[in-house]
Amino acid sequence: MKNIKFLLLGVFFAIVLSKTQAISWYRFYEMFKFQSFHMYGIIGGAVVISAIIMQLFKSGKIKDINGNKITPKPKKKGTVRTLVGGTFFGLGWGISGACAAPIFVILGFKLVPALILLAGALLGAFIYGLLSKKLPH
Amino acid sequence: MDFILQPWPWYIGGPLIAISLFLYFYFGKNFGVSTNLETLCTMAGAGKVSDYFKKDWKERDFALLFVVGLIIGGFISSIYLIPNKAIDLNTTTIKELTDLGFSNVGNQYFPDEIFSKEVYSSIKGFLILLVSGIFVGFGTRYAGGCTSGHAITGLSSLQLPSLLAVIGFFIGGIIATWFIIPLIF
After folding, report:
1. Which residue of A8, A18, A79, A130 is the best one to mutate when testing the B interface, meaning the one whose CB has the most B CBs within 10 A?
2. CA-to-CA distance for A11 and A48, rounded, in angstroms?
3. What pTM does this model have?
4. What is the ipTM of this complex?
């Protein structure tokens, strides 16, 4: 099982999010209300350090485990899809306090509520798939 | 051991998230979480209804294992690593939420008003979770990424679509917390 490392990385990432309280409903509430620096420190720190890592990938100083150059996939372009889609995502995130990764982590904390959230998220992704050809991007 | 059981400060979180992103790319894959929502739809047979889901989910087995890891990590953290689940909140936040009718604000990770055990017997609680879940799932796939894929991977690799998506995340999050939460509580 060469992919077992991804499972271990998932465990690590979940512990990081849990221990830094980056899955707590209150932490996202206060972030969107600009009442605390905590989440800005976490996300900002992650972005700045990741930007340095990305430069090392780009320059070829760090290659992946197989010796290949690391290039992040270009994100899909489109002002409507990113702004409107982003706003929908933000609405759900602001109310539930859970974005994609935390939904899975929260299963370990609040099983039944997290299962309802997950069912909603799957339904939402399914609805997007059904409508994807009709929506403006 | 004491450090492990204490809450970790923000300045530990950023670097550890960056290390997670680094390892994900080092293992040869693109860091992100929300594509798994589509993969799970595919596994559940959504390809029968829409061509959008006609994909080979086995090509994303690594990402599904990451998700299994997230779930296991959540249980480990909840049961063993966080003896004290209180959140050190600003007094303004506590007062604001208490005034809205929230109880025991900040004494646990999740408010009972939304994450209650009785949620399946309360229509309101059930709908809040289900609808916000739908918004998260629909929004992230429409936008092409979530906090991991856009805010962290996309911003750090200086991609314009990710900046727009993060602006969208904040528009939505601000509407939700400043206007919708006071309305529904």
Report:
1. A18
2. 23
3. 0.97
4. 0.96
